[in-house]
Amino acid sequence: MVGSVISELAGKKSLQVYIDETKAKYAGIFWPSLLKTVPSDNLKWSAVIGDRKAGVAGNVTAFNVSAPLHTRDALREKDGRIPSIRGKRVMDENDLHKYLELSKQNNLDINRVLALIYDDIEFCSIAPHKRVDWMTAKMLSTGGKISFQSDNNVGVVTQYDVDFGMPASHKTGTTGEIWSNAAGSTPLKDLKTNFFEPLADLGVGGGVIRMHPSKVFDLLNSNEVLAKFGLLSNGKTNGIDLSLQTVNNFLTQNSWPTIRPFNASVGIEVDGKVVYSNPFEKDNIVFTPDGQIGSLHVAPIVERDRPVDGVTYAEYNGNLVKKYSKTDPVVEFTAYEYNAFPSFDTIDQSFIMNTARKGSFAA
User: Fold this and answer.
1) In this structure, what DSSP letter does residue 234 have?
2) Nearest C-alpha neighbor of 61 from the set 53, 70, 72
3) Where are the alpha helices (DSSP H) in 72-186?
4) Tens digits of residue pLDDT in 140-161
């Protein structure tokens, strides 16, 4: 078999055409709503993190005196190397026999043949973007940390671990009991003390509070919250369920940030087994300013500029998708490559609270 299955069918454009025609069916990715894409000319990323406050008042002085010297706000620069996000799937000889059977039929239906390899194309189109989703959720819900371990990545690549350094004063625990304690927890007081009051001092308006869906349930089940909305009397609920919309209406009326559940799922494959879970840290809730929280630094791919003979290429949101064959035994590979890494540019204006620890964010 010379070249890839795709190139045999309809020329080098058919892989791209197939992706373009079917991408609406692909599993959704969320990182574009949180990160802006920043192209890089090399394999390095750099992010400038500044502490944006409401502004410093000018000094009132007498005439004929030297103007007082103001302190410049310190800017922090984080940098590192952009990793490659890559992988591949293989069609063995049994799979290829199915392709050959279809290709020998009269009135060949290319779409039917392509459907045979659809799963591999879809998988390789979205896989690197789901890794970016995972990295984004982790840095957002840990106070700016991304760490690769044997249970979340094939191979431990600690050289790409990063901590964007959220200010210690922005990382807190609960003011009362932890949120899983419905009788003693005080979610509204926690939000006021740990988020709303510091934000008012910084002059930060708007924004959003993100949390794992399980924390939304904890908040809505809290006696403090139920009592606030008149749904608790003598320690018992009146049988009316409280909705998040009701809580958000209350927050909006007071010009406070609203709550948004972080609903997401990413599959992580280790030792051939895929486990799907929400990558947002379950116990942490996070405030970030309105809009995107950071950048996705994207580096060039050598094979895009220097394509290899016999390989069919296509693009999916910057990800280079490839199909090619090898012999002895005959196999067909579908592969992906995306050189990208996120940065948490607004971390100095963000806050995080551990709802499972009283007082401090961590031990």
Assistant:
1) T
2) 70
3) 93-103, 110-116, 118-141
4) 999 999 999 888 988 767 778 8
